[in-house]
Amino acid sequence: MAQATPDYYKTLDVPRDADADQIKKAFRKLAREHHPDAGGDEAKFKEINEAYEVLSDEKKRNLYDQYGTANANQIPNGWPGGNMGDMFSGFGSWADILESIRSGEGAFGGFNFNGFGGQRGPQQGGCRSSCGSGCGGHGGPMKGQDMNVTLKLSFQEAFEGVEKRVTVRIPGKQDPVTLTVKVPAGAVDGGRLRYRGQGAPSTMGGEPGDLLVSFKLDPHPHFERDGADVIVNTPVTVAEAALGASVVVPAPDGTKIRVKVPAGTQDGTLLTVRGKGAAKVKGQGNGDLQVKVLVKVPTQMNDEQKQAMEAYLAATKEEVRTWL
What we know:
Blueprint: H1 8-12, H2 20-34, H3 42-55, H4 58-67, H5 84-87, H6 94-102, E1 147-153, H7 155-160, E2 162-168, E3 177-183, E4 192-195, E5 211-217, E6 223-226, E7 229-237, H8 238-243, E8 245-250, E9 256-261, E10 270-273, E11 289-296, H9 303-315
Parallel strand pairs: 1-5, 7-11
Antiparallel strand pairs: 2-3, 4-5, 6-7, 8-9, 10-11
Helix pairs in contact: 2-3
């Protein structure tokens, strides 16, 4: 028995009417949480990627919503849905059917039965569907399977863009196929490129599937990516956070930037430097550099530091634990 297709909406924790932005935002959040490099569960990470691959692709999502699977090869030939109720859902109410009879169209006027197997009638030999994922629902040739390849990138390769050669083995082909992949500047973790017709050949006389090249970014010791924005973790002392300071931080383009830390800055505060992030793959310009302030509390102090902290404590009148 074939394994049931998982509920991709439940996997990404989004409603079934979620738009593309909601799906992308949910994927990014879960991918960061479950990424194996961050100590997450690899199996869960694969489930999240699979769900995003289907729901972020309009054609695959339409197939999944209609048939419960995005794999055209799993859709029985000529079956428009999963049960008799689905099969006749397009006819409307019984009142509509009776009205069709009165108008001379017959009970199921306007419905094309060619897709139910057996005799196809005068249109046999070609499917006029524009589904783009094979014509299993109409008895015509089906498109070959899409293939997925993961391409690992360093932080800098994704930031600047790079060309890389990818070698894949295509079912039915004796020799491996090598492609030059042009990674755009600003490529994001989980982003992908589609190479049409470079996937598995069809076994039904249809066109080949596509090759999907997904990007996986290696972690960087100082920088993190959030879309086109780049986050740089910046340690400051307790005194710098309390009194304010001017600190120099590295930017991902190799330059250094002086940033003002306002007096009273709290741990985890983000200070924004406009336009110093990664290029926007979709859109114009660059994202921002987000300077994340990390207040470093000393674990060891000399006598002078201890005296200064004790003097500060003695001079402090306000209560920070507000529940007391």
